[in-house]
């Protein structure tokens, strides 16, 4: 009996030691029964989410890149058109729009006041800029504001307008050509007197070409200007009179890196620049979309390669723990099942001995 009690005590101690681990393994078993199903279902669910997203991102990137490429070509074409535009001064196909007619009425009113003739070109040019859709400070600068431009002798320079073009380029426009003699010519009825005013007008245009050439705005180190400066003549009929009266006038201007333009050319030029800026903004938005799409794609791939694989490894580890627990529970010599059988056998044996002893004592 004493020996049986000792064996019984040892078995109980072993059971106490094994029970926490065995119950833990039993819990793992319950979880692992669902692990395979969970793994398959979660992977399918994630793929249902990720795959369409990846497809949409791929499609988005393709569409944006195609659009970016076509618009870049279009922008390049437009920039070439700008260069060609200023060579079309004598193109009879350019028809004055209602906008130009409105400006003409405005200039007629201004030229009646001799005090305003000095600022005449600047006022007209600023009005055209206001109507162009371009934004001051962002797309153009008036009078070199805040740039602190200086010539080689450190004298301040204030170009009337600095147009900004995508690619950090600039176009400079001067509007200070005098139309005083042209107004006198326009008002005069006497033929001989008109000729005198015409000569004065042509002389003033040539003098301004020389003055503008000496300023060399296009050589400013703070600017990335085109090789020429636009000399704005704020009346197309004044421009026509000057060019038709002296065919060499435009050639003289070109030799001095100057291009003479009237309001029709300037309006067309500003429309092109406005369109280029719109394309540039679209391109910037497209690049931003591509960048964000790449970030999303990277995060998805990181989740799949790092986190999801880690989940899979943990599930496999859990499965291994379950198998180990199952072996300890059912198959090993020291499993809880075998220990329970031994305990039952000892209990039955002890019960039999105690019963026999009680019967012997009664006799």
Care to describe what's here?
Keywords: Coiled coil, DNA recombination. This is DNA recombination protein RmuC. There is one protein chain. The chain is α/β, with parallel strands linked by helices and 363 residues long. It has two domains: 2-64 and 292-362; 89-278, no CATH class. Helix content is 70%, strand content 7%. The chain has ten helices and five strands. Strands 1-2-3-4-5 form a five-stranded mixed β-sheet, with helices on both faces. A hairpin with a 3-residue loop joins strand 2 and strand 3 (169-174). The model is unreliable at 88-97 (pLDDT under 50).
Features:
DNA recombination protein RmuC, single chain, 7% strand, DNA_recombination_RmuC, 363 residues, coiled coil
End-to-end CA span: 20 Å
Number of strands: 5
Strand content: 5-15%
Bin the helical content. Answer: 55-70%
Count structural domains: 2
Contiguous uncertain segments of 5+ residues: 88-97
Mean pLDDT: 72
Strand order within the widest sheet? 1-2-3-4-5
Categorize the overall geometry: rod-shaped
The ordered H/E elements are HHHHEEEHHEHHEHH
Structural class of the secondary structure composition? alpha/beta
Our Rg estimate from Cα atoms comes to 46 Å
Biggest beta sheet attributes:
5 strands, mixed
- Summed up, the helix count is 10
